[in-house]
Amino acid sequence: MTKSNLKTREDDVEADDEEQGNAAPANVSGARLKSFLERIERIEEEKKALAEDIRDIYSEAKSTGFEPKIMRKIISLRKTNLEKRREERELLDLYMSAIGMVE
Q: Which of 77, 88, 93, 98 is the residue whose CA sits 20 to 30 A from 46?
């Protein structure tokens, strides 16, 4: 849909709102705001469904003997680039050594 088509649809909805006595302030498009809110709500529902799917996968992995806590840590590490992981590991080792937790 092009911007001109979108603008026309928004103008039509605003005109309908005005006819029904639901006029929004001059600088706020009620139809556009509602569209944004509905899109956010739809995506929030999708996020919820995806989170449930992820929990199911961790549960399945746990039932076959894997430790979900460790799996989450690996996922986190895989998101971080190699150099950043090395820096964090060096700092962790340094701090652990400073408090007497040398391995």
A: 77
